[in-house]
Amino acid sequence: MRPCRFSALLLVGALLMPLVGCSDKKGDSSGSDVASSAKETKAVADKVELKDYKFPEFLNEIKQPDSLSSPVYVSFALSEFISEVTEQPFEGYECSNKIGNIFYIFSEGKYKGLLDKNGKVVLKADTYTTIGLCTPSILMLSRDKELNAPEEYLSFNVFGSISPAETPEFKSDHIRIEEETRNKPSSDDEDDGNYKVYNLILDDNKKVGDGSSYVDWDKIESVSAQSINTSRPYNAYYRVQKGEEIYYICFDRFYNYTIYNGAYGFVRMKVGDGYGSCYILDHDDYSELNKLVKSFGESDPVKSPSKDTGLDYVQIETGYGTDDLVTMTISADGYCFTDHLGSGDQQPQKYFTILDKESFVSLVKWVDQVLSVEYEK
After folding, report:
1. Which of 24, 59, 26, 2 lies closest to 229 in space, CA to CA?
2. What does DSSP assign to residue 207?
3. What is the separation of C-alpha 214 from the centre of its chain, rounded to a whole number of angstroms?
């Protein structure tokens, strides 16, 4: 759901076959297993004299790749409700933050209190050391956050009235999947027809993603954090799909939710002393990558891998969420090792090919110029 940037790929060459798969090995470009169908050849990669390329700096910032790294929608953005106070609004009070146009948070020693928009004390600064928001209408307060004191909660309205609130308790059955059948309008080249859409509905009958484009899914399923390889602590995770696009909807214990781009593949790379890895998290980028790969053309399988295990390389795993997984490892001398797991009646294949050595440079530039944008959000 982002404008196409395929023009950036014109700087580059391209890969081979569709991509997909999983491998934690580094530098498989020097592996020895090959498919029995591979034929003998004396083809040897030319001396490596490549155009300039560099290690993508954004990979240095990714200490632990996480598939939930590209948010596209947030139901409760704290920055939209709490702002920093730059000029003191009331004499005699030291205010630090403003909550909407309703409250000011002020301090007296280590304690925090609340003033209304007219400067009247709503909550004295003699009990709580932190005051924040957990939903647009519930305050979360702590007597001593550093000692892990249990939070207390106050609900409030737009008039600045506060009242005690029960401790929020997350229950997964407060989120349900709703199916709806809709009629497809007819056109000149197709008949009328019904189709189904699915949405997540909260207990108050609010539709998750309502008001955005992130609604009306073709498929919804509850998944675990382990199945999507994330360390982000949420109380519930849902994998949703629309056409070929994949997303995850994740709920915290207050039923706030964040929608993330799904993962379509994974990239590892070594350039000089630099090593890094990241997910492919945008469907448009994944489509561009497949076009790039197809532009590399095809070459015959060979049994003569590179002997230099220290060469720079790019490894790409693709086909996440499908049963057609491929891992390709391309080294700087042009050798490409493909590990195709196969799907259905297809047999697994492992083989080497030789590509134009500029294909390697094309992939490095694609990662640097295209995937880096995913991690700038």
Report:
1. 24
2. B
3. 15
Per-residue tokens: 30: 């020097």
* Residue 207, amino acid: K
Residues 27, 31, 35, 37: what is their CA dihedral angle, to the nearest 10 degrees? 100
Half-sphere exposure for 191 (CA within 13 Å, toward CB): 2
Burial of 316 (0-12, 13-18, 19+ CB in 10 A): buried
pLDDT in tens, the chain (377 residues): 554 443 333 333 333 333 333 333 333 333 333 333 333 333 444 444 446 789 999 999 999 999 999 999 999 999 999 999 999 999 999 999 999 999 999 999 999 999 999 999 999 999 999 999 999 999 999 998 777 778 999 999 999 999 999 998 999 999 999 999 988 776 655 656 789 999 999 998 999 999 999 999 999 999 999 888 899 999 999 999 999 999 999 999 999 999 999 999 999 999 999 999 999 999 999 999 989 888 887 666 777 666 677 889 999 999 887 778 899 999 998 888 888 876 666 677 888 888 888 889 999 999 999 999 888 86
3-state SS assignment for residue 80? helix
Helices assigned H by DSSP within 300-343: none
The span from the CA of 10 to the CA of 12, in Å, is 5
Type of residue at 327: T
User: What is the SS3 assignment for 44?
Assistant: coil
Q: Where are the alpha helices (DSSP H) in the chain?
A: 283-294, 358-366, 372-374
Token couple for 4 = 């196409």
Long-range Cβ pairs for the range 284-289 (8 Å, 24+): 284/1, 284/2, 284/3, 284/4, 284/5, 285/5, 285/370, 285/371, 285/374, 286/318, 288/4, 288/5, 288/6, 288/9, 288/366, 288/370, 289/15, 289/19, 289/265, 289/316, 289/318, 289/366, 289/370
N-term to C-term CA, the chain: 14
For residues 80 and 181, what is the distance between their CA atoms, to the nearest angstrom? 36
Number of DSSP helices (H) and strands (E) in the chain, helices first: 3, 22
